[in-house]
UniProtKB/TrEMBL annotation:
Residues 8-70 form the Transcription regulator TrmB N-terminal domain. This is Transcription regulator TrmB N-terminal domain-containing protein. InterPro entries: TrmB-like, Tscrpt_reg_TrmB_N, WH-like_DNA-bd_sf, WH_DNA-bd_sf.
């Protein structure tokens, strides 16, 4: 019986709903009066619980004379309930994702706090690269700076193979400090590039009021952190420009 209660709680049933459902399950069909006697719950609360269970597809109600009887539906419908909940969560997630840029915009305005987003998938890294294009394309001077890490360079743009083509199409320029050997300048048109011998494990992009840092976990899964804060971005750009001027 403990397993049954855990399963019912797992699909989001309240305590009274679980008691009423558990009482109705062995009976198959019963009136509100019978269920109130079986559970010790007053009739009004039993009625509310049954209505909720009916909405969730676990019971069905029909009127017999002046009274309403409820029948338990096949427990297999619990799977349907879980599927419905899953779809509802997915829809809610999609809505939140669509509203996230606006939500973050309002959040970042609270007391001048920066907004920080974390991405831990190929799709997330692509979103960062897309954000670079959208953000820089709206700037008066279409340029961004980046530290191109040899460690990350080999896989980063595989996640967005048309990134360079789209960057050129939008007329975006780039200043690149390449960390480590490699990197074909032909693949970075409309870019100025300088090299440092030392490699680094993270790829850093400085664009507009944003700084994105991209690297990979020990299992080679890419992850990224996107910071939106004008002060942080300007500080990082000052450091970049200072280093840029020192590299021959």
């Amino acid at each position: 019986m403990l397993e049954v209660k855990d399963a019912l709680k797992g699909i989001g049933l309240a305590d009274k709903e679980m008691q009423v459902y558990s009482a109705l399950l062995p009976l198959g069909s019963a009136s509100i009066r019978i269920l109130a006697l079986r559970t010790g719950i007053n009739r009004g609360s039993v009625h509310d619980a049954l209505n909720s269970l009916e909405q969730k597809g676990l019971v069905s109600g029909e009127r017999k004379g002046s009274r309403r009887h409820f029948s338990v539906r096949s427990p297999e419908n619990i799977i349907d309930t879980l599927e419905a909940q899953k779809k509802k969560i997915e829809r809610s997630e999609d809505m939140v994702r669509q509203a996230l840029p606006a939500l973050l915009s309002f959040y970042s305005k609270q007391g001048g706090r920066p907004s920080v987003e974390y991405f831990d998938s190929d799709e997330g890294i692509r979103k960062i690269l897309e954000d670079v294009l959208i953000t820089v394309d709206a700037l008066p001077e279409k340029e961004y700076a980046l530290y191109s890490s040899k460690s990350a360079r080999s896989y980063l743009y595989k996640l967005y193979p048309d990134f360079t083509k789209e960057k050129i199409k939008r007329g975006i320029n780039t200043k690149v400090i390449a960390l480590g050997e490699g990197g074909d300048p032909a693949n970075l048109k409309m870019a100025e590039r300088k090299w440092l011998d030392s490699d680094a494990p993270a790829y850093i992009l400085i664009y507009g009021p944003k700084v994105a840092m991209i690297s990979a976990a020990e299992d080679d899964t890419p992850f990224g952190v996107l910071i939106k804060d004008d002060k942080i971005a300007r500080t990082q750009r000052i450091l970049f420009d200072n280093l840029w001027s020192r590299i021959i």
